[in-house]
Protein backbone atom coordinates (compact mmCIF):
# COMPACT_ATOMS: atom_id res chain seq x y z
CA UNK A 1 0.00 0.00 0.00
CA UNK A 2 1.18 3.54 -0.62
CA UNK A 3 2.37 5.16 2.61
CA UNK A 4 -0.36 7.84 2.58
CA UNK A 5 -3.02 5.12 2.38
CA UNK A 6 -1.39 3.21 5.21
CA UNK A 7 -1.64 6.30 7.43
CA UNK A 8 -5.38 6.48 6.78
CA UNK A 9 -5.98 2.78 7.46
CA UNK A 10 -3.75 2.40 10.55
CA UNK A 11 -5.13 4.58 13.28
CA UNK A 12 -4.32 4.98 16.90
CA UNK A 13 -7.15 3.72 19.07
CA UNK A 14 -7.44 4.58 22.75
CA UNK A 15 -8.39 2.40 25.69
CA UNK A 16 -8.28 3.41 29.33
CA UNK A 17 -9.36 2.15 32.74
CA UNK A 18 -9.11 3.93 36.10
CA UNK A 19 -8.92 1.62 39.11
CA UNK A 20 -9.35 2.89 42.69
CA UNK A 21 -7.25 0.79 45.08
CA UNK A 22 -7.21 0.78 48.88
CA UNK A 23 -3.43 0.72 49.07
CA UNK A 24 -0.71 3.37 49.23
CA UNK A 25 0.57 4.64 45.88
CA UNK A 26 4.10 3.35 46.62
CA UNK A 27 2.76 -0.19 47.13
CA UNK A 28 0.74 0.02 43.88
CA UNK A 29 3.81 1.27 42.00
CA UNK A 30 6.01 -1.52 43.36
CA UNK A 31 3.47 -4.13 42.25
CA UNK A 32 3.13 -2.62 38.77
CA UNK A 33 6.90 -2.32 38.34
CA UNK A 34 7.34 -6.01 39.25
CA UNK A 35 7.26 -7.07 35.61
CA UNK A 36 7.41 -10.82 36.10
CA UNK A 37 4.99 -10.55 39.02
CA UNK A 38 2.38 -9.30 36.55
CA UNK A 39 2.03 -12.96 35.53
CA UNK A 40 0.18 -13.46 38.84
CA UNK A 41 -2.70 -11.18 37.91
CA UNK A 42 -2.77 -10.65 34.15
CA UNK A 43 -5.39 -12.84 32.52
CA UNK A 44 -3.86 -15.84 30.70
CA UNK A 45 -0.52 -14.06 30.45
CA UNK A 46 3.07 -14.90 31.29
CA UNK A 47 5.41 -11.90 31.57
CA UNK A 48 9.19 -12.01 31.15
CA UNK A 49 11.81 -9.39 31.89
CA UNK A 50 14.18 -9.55 28.90
CA UNK A 51 16.71 -6.86 29.81
CA UNK A 52 19.46 -6.91 32.42
CA UNK A 53 17.94 -3.86 34.09
CA UNK A 54 14.56 -4.14 35.78
CA UNK A 55 13.83 -0.43 36.22
CA UNK A 56 14.18 2.65 34.09
CA UNK A 57 14.06 3.72 30.48
CA UNK A 58 15.18 0.96 28.14
CA UNK A 59 13.86 -1.98 30.14
CA UNK A 60 12.39 -4.62 27.83
CA UNK A 61 9.52 -6.94 28.65
CA UNK A 62 7.73 -9.71 26.78
CA UNK A 63 4.19 -10.81 27.60
CA UNK A 64 2.70 -13.92 26.05
CA UNK A 65 -1.10 -14.16 26.18
CA UNK A 66 -3.01 -17.27 25.19
CA UNK A 67 -5.00 -20.20 26.52
CA UNK A 68 -1.86 -22.30 27.14
CA UNK A 69 0.33 -19.41 28.36
CA UNK A 70 1.87 -21.59 31.07
CA UNK A 71 3.47 -23.72 28.36
CA UNK A 72 5.01 -20.88 26.36
CA UNK A 73 6.94 -21.14 24.04
CA UNK A 74 5.80 -24.69 23.21
CA UNK A 75 2.31 -23.50 22.25
CA UNK A 76 3.27 -20.02 21.01
CA UNK A 77 1.08 -20.44 17.94
CA UNK A 78 -1.99 -20.34 20.25
CA UNK A 79 -1.42 -16.81 21.48
CA UNK A 80 0.14 -13.42 20.99
CA UNK A 81 3.57 -12.21 22.07
CA UNK A 82 3.63 -8.55 23.12
CA UNK A 83 7.10 -6.94 23.01
CA UNK A 84 7.52 -3.77 25.08
CA UNK A 85 10.25 -1.27 25.90
CA UNK A 86 10.02 1.35 28.66
CA UNK A 87 10.26 4.85 27.15
CA UNK A 88 9.46 6.98 30.22
CA UNK A 89 10.15 6.14 33.86
CA UNK A 90 9.01 8.41 36.66
CA UNK A 91 8.62 6.38 39.85
CA UNK A 92 6.32 6.21 41.72
CA UNK A 93 4.01 8.03 39.33
CA UNK A 94 4.29 7.09 35.65
CA UNK A 95 5.69 4.51 33.25
CA UNK A 96 5.26 4.59 29.46
CA UNK A 97 6.03 1.71 27.12
CA UNK A 98 6.09 1.21 23.39
CA UNK A 99 4.62 -2.00 21.96
CA UNK A 100 6.77 -3.04 19.02
CA UNK A 101 5.86 -6.65 18.28
CA UNK A 102 4.69 -8.16 15.02
CA UNK A 103 1.01 -8.00 16.01
CA UNK A 104 0.66 -5.53 18.88
CA UNK A 105 1.90 -2.02 18.14
CA UNK A 106 1.27 1.23 19.98
CA UNK A 107 1.96 2.73 23.37
CA UNK A 108 0.90 2.11 26.94
CA UNK A 109 0.90 4.15 30.13
CA UNK A 110 0.66 3.22 33.81
CA UNK A 111 0.01 6.10 36.19
CA UNK A 112 -0.43 5.88 39.94
CA UNK A 113 -2.24 8.75 41.64
CA UNK A 114 -2.12 9.06 45.40
CA UNK A 115 -5.47 10.05 46.91
CA UNK A 116 -4.58 9.52 50.56
CA UNK A 117 -2.17 7.62 52.76
CA UNK A 118 -3.92 4.31 52.14
CA UNK A 119 -5.58 4.81 48.77
CA UNK A 120 -4.68 5.52 45.18
CA UNK A 121 -5.97 5.32 41.65
CA UNK A 122 -4.22 3.25 39.02
CA UNK A 123 -4.71 4.73 35.54
CA UNK A 124 -4.09 2.27 32.70
CA UNK A 125 -4.21 3.43 29.09
CA UNK A 126 -3.19 2.13 25.68
CA UNK A 127 -2.98 3.56 22.19
CA UNK A 128 -3.25 0.63 19.79
CA UNK A 129 -2.24 1.02 16.15
CA UNK A 130 -4.76 -1.01 14.17
CA UNK A 131 -7.31 -0.58 11.43
CA UNK A 132 -10.41 1.01 12.97
CA UNK A 133 -12.74 -1.87 12.06
CA UNK A 134 -10.43 -4.48 13.61
CA UNK A 135 -10.00 -2.31 16.71
CA UNK A 136 -13.78 -1.95 17.12
CA UNK A 137 -14.18 -5.73 16.85
CA UNK A 138 -11.48 -6.56 19.44
CA UNK A 139 -12.02 -3.63 21.84
CA UNK A 140 -14.73 -5.32 23.98
CA UNK A 141 -12.55 -8.41 24.45
CA UNK A 142 -9.46 -6.36 25.32
CA UNK A 143 -11.37 -4.23 27.84
CA UNK A 144 -12.96 -7.30 29.44
CA UNK A 145 -9.54 -8.94 29.83
CA UNK A 146 -8.01 -5.76 31.23
CA UNK A 147 -10.84 -5.27 33.72
CA UNK A 148 -10.55 -8.88 34.93
CA UNK A 149 -6.78 -8.49 35.24
CA UNK A 150 -7.02 -5.20 37.12
CA UNK A 151 -9.62 -6.65 39.51
CA UNK A 152 -7.14 -9.43 40.30
CA UNK A 153 -4.42 -6.83 40.76
CA UNK A 154 -6.57 -4.89 43.23
CA UNK A 155 -7.37 -8.07 45.20
CA UNK A 156 -3.65 -8.82 45.56
CA UNK A 157 -3.03 -5.39 47.08
CA UNK A 158 -6.05 -4.90 49.31
How do the helices and strands line up, and which of them pair or pack?
Blueprint: H1 3-9, E1 10-21, H2 25-32, E2 45-49, E3 60-65, E4 80-90, E5 94-100, E6 105-116, E7 119-131, H3 132-157
Antiparallel strand pairs: 1-7, 2-3, 3-4, 4-5, 5-6, 6-7
Question: Quick gist of this model?
Answer:
The chain has 158 residues and is α+β, with helices and mostly antiparallel strands.
Descriptive key words:
158 residues, 7 strands, alpha+beta, disordered N terminus, single chain, globular, 3 helices
What does it look like?
This protein is α+β, with helices and mostly antiparallel strands. Helix content is 26%, strand content 42%. The protein has three helices and seven strands; from the N terminus they run H-E-H-E-E-E-E-E-E-H. A seven-stranded antiparallel sheet has the order 1-7-6-5-4-3-2. The chain is globular. Mean pLDDT is 90; it is low at 1-11.
